[in-house]
Structures are given as structure tokens and as C-alpha cells.
Specification:
Elements: E1 7-8, H1 12-19, E2 29-33, E3 43-48, E4 54-59, E5 64-68, E6 87-89, E7 113-116, E8 122-126, E9 131-135, E10 141-145, E11 152-158, E12 161-169, E13 173-178, E14 183-189, E15 195-201, E16 206-211, E17 215-220, E18 226-231, E19 247-250, E20 257-261, E21 264-268, E22 274-278, E23 288-293, E24 299-304, E25 309-313, E26 319-323, H2 333-338, E27 343-348, E28 356-360, E29 365-370
Parallel strand pairs: 1-22
Antiparallel strand pairs: 2-29, 3-4, 4-5, 5-6, 7-8, 8-9, 9-10, 11-12, 12-13, 13-14, 15-16, 16-17, 17-18, 19-20, 20-21, 21-22, 23-24, 24-25, 25-26, 27-28, 28-29
Length: 384
């Protein structure tokens, strides 16, 4: 595996677009900032419901927020849109979904993790304290488990059976937990630092884990044995070994794996061979903050610490377009009081490949889409 030479995208379009963003003005795309009368705190997790008609955010203050698009005269389909503001939704009781916190760590220091069941009915969530299972209709806590220490840092439902979940822990272990019988079925050890990413492949019957040690591990979901492990590859000129939060996500083909680290985005195969990578070079772009596949797997949306968004072809990491923060961040009260921020997390719509949501470090949530004049994300640098 050490002899594999990954391809890296190094063409002139990448460099030119980093210097000259393709999309700099709000007239060049559709964008909406979601309404939030509650005190805004850093967004640490963000995802669309599987139905695609709602967005769920977890903030660093342990509070969850759920926005729903409604059928109206202006939005007869009721679908999510960057042209229509959704409503911040609560049950009739006015209940809020808030997580337990640790006695030893302030809520604002807790990164938080969430996982939504396939039918959108149940939510697993933790913010440094006990893991809570919420009812998404009533916002009530159905049960709690795994009180710290160690704290849960990453969550993923088993796609074969939503009664099982993988829980990545602060102590670098992964616990396979049965919600139905309230029992840990297996405890996996293979990392040196806390778990920061978990991804199941239903096709391959494996779980891939990533840690703050920048290591990847493959686990067989039948007997939970470790099949393979390796560190992610170090970009040229970068200090070695790598450390820091590492995220993983399977492509829709369930065999290719997107690996995200501040130093790079990369695609690995099912044997942890690096097929291709892209990394910020020189001072042309800031470190990477987050990245995700589009629902059709054709592009990778990548956020940067300076607020920019890069849209890359998934098969070769060629840059389609570069979106400046000025294009989607308006002069809102949040931006004025806390700065414009950067995307901590990007959520990809489950059926609209060009629609994404951005959870920001200043607490704002934005939904963006290409303009009506351009149905897909294509920048001027990509025009022949």
C-alpha cells in the first residue's frame, strides 16, 4: 500500500479559480439564511432529513433546531428551496431538544454528534454528556445511555438495522450499541486518539472509522474484527505524521470513500488505497473545514476556513467553481455581531444534487443553489 501514488488535481483551473472566485455576488446564485429567533451558537452538526423537506442543526450550546419547508402559495410543492425561507419548527408543546452536558466540560466546548434514523422518526445525539434518543415528532427523550467518561464523539446508525449504532468515543474506542436491549455488543480498539468519523458500507458489510490520529480502520460488521488500518497520506511539504479531525463518507456506490482532513480531500478504495487527492497549495486557499459528496456522487462540496466553497468533480477533483463568502453571506445581524464565519459543516440534499446547506461558525445556517440561469454549479473558469 505504501507504493500507491495517488493522483492529485494540479491543473491551471484550480489555481486560477482560487485566485479569482467564479461566484462573488448574491446575484450569481440563490441563497437564503434560515430564520432563527433563538440565540445563535456555532453550528457543529447539520443534516437534511431523509425526506429532504427539513434541516436539522445541532449547535454548540447543545440545542437542536429543525426547519421545515411548508406547502404554500409561493411553494406549492413543499420542497426545500434556496428561494423560500422555511419555518423554525417546534411541537405544539413548545418543547426544545437539548442534550445533556458533561460536568467537567462547558457546553460551548462540546463538538456534538447526531445520527438520524432512516424513517426520520428518531434522532441519536450527544454533546459531551449522555447520548439521547429523541422522538422527532414530540422532541421528547425516549432513553439515554453511555454517560461519560468517556464521552461520545461520533454516531452512526447501522444501515441493516437501525436498532444498532456505532458510537465513537473520546477514549479512541468504538462501541457497537443495541438501543433495543440497552447493551454494548462489541468494543473496538484500533485508534490512538478520539474517533471523529464513522461510515457504514451496506454493500461491503464494513464500518470505516477515522480518528483525530488521522488513521483509518476497516471493521467487519459480522464479527467486528479489524480488517485493515492505515494513516491517511501526507501531502507534499506537510509536517508528518498528520493529526487532527478526520471525516469519512461513502460514495453512493458504497465502495469509494471520501476522506476529509484540513490538509486535503481524498478518495480511497475499499482496501484503503488512496485513488486521488486534492490539497490547498501555497497560500491560494485556506485550510479545509468540511466536505461532502452530493447525493448523486458527481461532485464534492468543500468548505474552507475563509468561508469559501469549492465545488469539485468527484471523479478527478477538477474544480468546477469557487464560491466566495460574499455571494451567500448577507449583512445579517448574526454576521454583524459575530463576523461572517466559515462553514463548519456542509449538508447535501438527499435528492437535489445541486442544493446544499451550510452550518456556520457564527451560528447561521444558509441554503444555496445555482442561479436559475445556470442549473448546475459551473464557474467561468470551466467555460472553454
Amino acid at each position: 500500500m505504501a507504493d500507491i501514488k495517488p493522483r492529485s488535481s494540479d491543473n491551471i483551473d484550480n489555481i486560477r479559480s482560487c485566485k479569482f472566485p467564479d461566484i462573488v455576488d448574491s446575484s450569481q446564485l440563490k441563497a437564503v439564511q434560515l430564520p432563527d429567533p433563538l440565540l445563535a451558537s456555532k453550528v457543529v452538526q447539520l443534516l437534511y432529513t431523509n425526506s429532504g423537506v427539513a434541516l436539522l442543526a445541532l449547535a454548540s450550546d447543545t440545542m437542536h433546531k429543525l426547519w421545515k419547508w411548508q406547502r404554500t402559495e409561493h411553494n406549492p410543492s413543499g420542497k426545500s428551496s434556496a428561494s423560500i425561507k422555511p419555518e423554525l419548527w417546534q411541537p405544539a408543546t413548545g418543547a426544545l431538544m437539548t442534550n445533556y452536558t458533561s460536568d467537567t466540560k462547558p457546553a460551548e466546548e462540546s463538538s456534538g454528534c447526531i445520527a438520524l434514523s432512516k424513517n426520520d422518526s428518531y434522532l441519536l445525539s450527544a454533546s459531551g454528556g449522555k447520548v439521547s434518543l429523541f422522538n422527532m415528532i414530540t422532541f421528547k427523550i425516549m432513553t439515554t445511555f453511555m454517560p461519560p467518561p468517556p464521552a461520545a464523539t461520533c454516531l452512526a446508525f447501522d444501515p441493516h438495522d437501525n436498532n444498532f449504532c456505532a458510537v465513537g468515543m473520546e477514549d479512541s474506542t468504538i462501541q457497537i450499541y443495541s438501543v433495543r436491549v440497552d447493551e454494548v455488543k462489541a468494543k473496538l480498539k484500533g485508534h490512538q486518539k478520539q474517533i471523529t468519523g464513522l461510515a457504514f458500507s451496506q454493500a461491503l458489510d464494513i464500518l470505516v472509522s477515522a480518528g483525530a490520529d488521522a488513521q483509518l480502520c476497516i471493521w467487519d460488521t459480522e464479527g467486528w474484527e479489524k480488517k485493515k488500518a492505515r494513516p491517511i497520506q501526507v501531502p507534499p511539504g506537510h509536517p508528518s505524521p498528520l493529526v487532527g479531525e478526520t471525516k469519512v463518507q461513502f460514495h453512493k456506490d458504497q465502495t469509494h470513500l471520501l476522506v476529509v482532513h484540513e490538509s486535503q480531500i481524498a478518495v480511497y478504495d475499499s482496501e484503503l488505497g488512496c485513488l486521488q487527492s486534492w490539497y490547498p497549495r501555497d497560500s491560494l486557499s485556506a485550510p479545509i473545514s468540511t466536505a461532502i459528496y452530493s447525493c448523486d456522487g458527481l461532485v464534492v462540496f468543500t468548505g474552507f476556513l475563509d468561508g469559501a466553497i469549492g465545488v469539485f468533480d468527484a471523479d478527478n477533483f477538477r474544480l468546477r467553481c469557487w464560491i466566495a463568502p460574499s455571494a451567500y453571506i448577507s449583512s445579517s445581524p448574526i454576521a454583524s455581531n459575530k463576523g461572517s464565519g466559515f462553514p463548519v459543516v456542509i449538508a447535501a440534499h438527499p435528492s437535489e444534487p445541486n442544493q446544499i446547506a451550510l452550518g456556520m461558525s457564527n451560528g447561521a445556517v444558509h441554503v444555496i443553489e445555482p442561479s436559475d440561469a445556470e442549473p448546475e454549479w459551473v464557474g467561468s473558469s470551466m467555460v472553454p
